[in-house]
Amino acid sequence: MCSVIGYVGKRLSCPLVLEGLKRLEYRGYDSAGFACVNSSDRSLSVQKAVGSVKQLEAQIADAGIDGYVAVGHTRWATHGQATKENAHPHLDCTKRIAVVHNGIIENFQDLKDVLVLQGHLFVSDTDSEVLAHLFEQYVTGASDTHEAFIRMVGQLKGAYAFVIISLEYPDILFVARRGSPLCIGVGKEEMFVASDPLAFAQQVEYVAFVPERTCGVVSKDSFVLYDREGMAVQTPIEQLEAEWIAVEKGEHEHFMLKEMYEQKQAIARTVHFYQSMKKGQVEETLGVTQDFLRDVEKIYLIGCGTSWHAGRIAEFFFESVTGVPAAAVLASEFRHRTFFPHPKALYIAISQSGETADVLETIRMINSHGLSTVALTNVASSSLVRECQGFWLTQAGPEIAVASTKAFSTQLTSLYWLAHYVAQIKGRIDQKQLIQAERELLTAGELLEATLEEYKHEVIAQDAPIYSAFNRYIFLGRHISYPFALEAALKLKEISYIFAQAYPAGELKHGPLALVEKVVPVVVFSHSDPVIYHKLLANVQEVKARDGHVIAFALEGQYELIAAADRAFVVPQSAPLLAPLVMAGLMQFFCYAIANACGRSIDKPRNLAKSVTVE
Ligand code: F6R
Q1: pTM, 2 dp
Q2: Which of 487, 469, 464 is nearest to 477 (CA)?
Q3: What is the pLDDT of residues 263-272, one digit of tens each?
Q4: Which of 112, 258, 406, 610 is catalytic?
Q5: In angstroms, how far is CA 21 from the centroid of its own chain?
Q6: Which homologous superfamily is 3-239 in?
């Protein structure tokens, strides 16, 4: 995923811009670049590197450049390969203008054709370069710079967030956004501009989110934004939220550990966020009408990995609470299957990052049929939000560790709430029951934390040394605890590199039972429904009868299961459908402790990236 950053102010820009790029680094990129108005000779200095920000940093140090006005970028190749030529910043013909851009200028070819006829020379394959030449053509030398810039931006089609610096206007950042996120970090005698407040959260206290379809100029003391008609647009300057600033590990050994501990707050924040919505705001945000929700006939939950698991658990939420059939589908598979457009279906794309390529491609395919798509994501500024008709945000705060934890639990929170909201619109439940569901979620968050706290020392001291020695695991669940078992198996695999496979417990005797032996622990996630519980118990007996080793996540009062297991974690009872949420913290911690005992690179497991922006 690309990131843009700009700086204008009293401090030397290079360390600030590079630090900002590093803070956004975990999202993945393949080249990086920096340009500044060089303070020594007022020239425009540019450095680009294919590879890491560290490489860029070394190049800049060798070049000895810095200044008080600068832009930086990390690029994930879309138009054109990952080369130095295609890396941002892009320059105009005179090399006095530099631009960093996120998004896609859809009409770049038309604009480029005209600019080429006007004598402009292009050196990259990117759509972004057109911005530098347009600026050169239309803004440089204009009698009214602001008006010329507004007119230039008016020519653009597509999605963009960009920052331009120019030797002509050496104390100004020109900015514009449409579809892609952009925000201004407001400091004392300095301003940042970035695609994500994370980039400058440690440097300034205030942020202004650049409104959609606006452009403007930012200087060290002020900024002004305009709409398409050239009217000034006011935007509030807000205190930066603590969670954006605190993206350090703090006293925690790993981000994953910190993020597991943050789940209670993240769940509560998500619930409170929905509670605070005004009448009509839910539908407006989702991009559908109340009538559509009342008549909705099918819910599709689209995702990959952990987000797909959240969707699979949420199938049960929607079906039992709303009475509407729900299907969780894997984005990477769904898009290649025969598609049967359903005009009364709601297509919810679940993605923590909002940048997962398979999810985006699936949504594009569904959008092409004019259907109702919703982005359920943790990143308001993501491509998924831009491309879906509506969006629905979780409030997990930034998740840095590759292995998803608080994003997963807030996805469950979000989908549980949404299922109840839809049920209310359909008249299946009343307002009081929606409020009750909110209470259940808050309680589940508290129980998640309490369970984690209760067992964490034992898990580290007793369990991790034992269980890190096994090299194969089976995970079992039934009904809602089966997709949770899938998530647990994924968590263990990705961070410990131990092979793990999840099965619906009822399938055991149809094959997987052949794998059961002492050296293959079987982890069972229980269920509060008595019928399902007793069937799970029978499966546990089958395992025990084959000399298997059982680790049970049992619910309070499930004495037979607790007694039968070799190791039992006893989890408090909650709203029945929320048992996976309550168990999530401990399950993640169990996998984490094993991986840590194996000495793995927990936050950045081998071969994996946080944002999977390639198919
Ligand atoms: C596993 C994990 C991945 C992601 C998957 C989708 O812990 O995080 O399986 O869930 O890559 O990512 P998003 O949710 O960003 O679409």
Answers
A1: 0.77
A2: 487
A3: 999 999 999 9
A4: 610
A5: 17
A6: Aminohydrolase, N-terminal nucleophile (Ntn) domain (3.60.20.10)
